[in-house]
């Protein structure tokens, strides 16, 4: 088993530690996709996958759904694809960043 020499509860801080060469880490692909594509980071265990999670939308049962609720559901269904848009960068596909600055991890 591996033991952690460094722990962090901030992905951006952990990304900087990894980019500095001080550690390896399991990182969200949306945060490091550009780093991997540019060769700054590599997949240490490329065949290892985390469990996928589902997102459920819960709303009251009504005869008529408010249009803003329907628009929000449709928006999420379109943007939260499988695989996520940021993962396409790692596989060489077309990238949808969804307004996320993949280099800095913030909104663009």
Can you put this structure into words, describing what you see?
- This protein is mostly helical.
- The protein has four helices and no strands.
- It is elongated, with a radius of gyration of 17 Å.
- The C terminus is likely disordered.
Distance between the termini: 39 Å
- How many beta-strand segments? 0
Please count the helical segments: 4
Described by strand count, sense and barrel closure, the largest sheet is: none
Compute the gyration radius: what is it?
A: 17 Å
Number of domains: 1
SSE pattern: HHHH
Mean pLDDT: 77
Q: What is the structural class?
A: mainly alpha
Basic shape? elongated
The amount of beta strand, in percent, is under 5%
Low-pLDDT stretches: 95-108
Give the proportion of residues in helices.
25-40%
Topology:
Blueprint: H1 11-19, H2 29-37, H3 67-79, H4 85-90
């Amino acid at each position: 088993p591996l033991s952690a020499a460094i722990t962090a509860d901030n992905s951006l801080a952990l990304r900087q530690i990894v980019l500095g060469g001080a550690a390896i880490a399991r990182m969200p692909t949306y945060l490091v996709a550009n780093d991997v594509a540019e060769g700054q980071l590599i997949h240490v265990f490329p065949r290892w996958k985390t469990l996928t999670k589902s997102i459920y939308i819960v709303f009251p049962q009504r005869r008529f759904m408010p249009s803003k609720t329907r628009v929000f559901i449709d928006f999420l269904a379109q943007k939260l694809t499988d695989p996520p848009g940021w993962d396409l960068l790692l596989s060489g596909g077309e990238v949808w960043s969804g307004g996320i600055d993949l280099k800095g991890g913030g909104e663009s």
